[in-house]
Amino acid sequence: MNEPGSLDYNAQNHKKKVKTMETRNLKAIAAFSQDKGVLDTMEKRKRVKKDLLKTKNYTLALISLNVDQEIPVRPEPYDVCFYVVDGAGAFTVGDEQVELSSGELVYAPANVPRGIKSKEPLILLGIQGPH
User: Fold this and answer.
1) Which domain holds residue 57?
2) 4: which residues sit within 8 A by CB, 6+ positions away?
3) Is the residue at 21 inside a domain?
4) Which of 1, 15, 19, 117 sees the fewest Cβ atoms within 10 Å?
């Protein structure tokens, strides 16, 4: 039976059967794409993003970028907080840019343009508002 407190739980369509206390090592499950440079299509961005947990209130997504890969600046219709699990990169939110590394986070509100450029292999946990 699917459990609301577990990873890979999808409250909308109950697809996966997992244990309530399933744990994950985010560095171990990161999957990097071999695409180069700007990930300018939805297909390329899907290769670097994996939804870990989706509920009606939020989504947890794992994003893995190789050196110099970039998710271009664009607005998204949901809030997100990016937590850097490993690596370093430049984050753009609106007109501001900040460089972050392991253990740091940044918040990007809905509909404000945002983007990411990796400086080294970058593993992020995205905590996204409902969408």
Assistant:
1) 29-128
2) 11, 55
3) no
4) 1
Helix (H, G, I), strand (E, B) or coil at 11: coil
Q: Is residue 73 part of a domain?
A: yes
**How far does Cα 5 stand from its chain's mean position?**
19
**Confidence (pTM):** 0.81
Strand residues in the chain grouped as ranges (E): 49-54, 59-65, 70-74, 80-86, 88-93, 96-101, 105-108, 114-118, 122-128
Q: Is 73 helix (H, G, I), strand (E, B) or coil?
A: strand
Does residue 39 lie within any of the structural domains? Answer: yes
* Other CB atoms within 10 A of residue 41 CB: 10
Taking only the tens place, the pLDDT of each residue in 11-38 is 555 455 556 667 889 999 999 999 999 9
One-letter amino acid for residue 54 of the chain = K
Specify the CATH number for the domain of residue 33.
2.60.120.10
Q: Provide the number of structural domains found in the chain.
A: 1
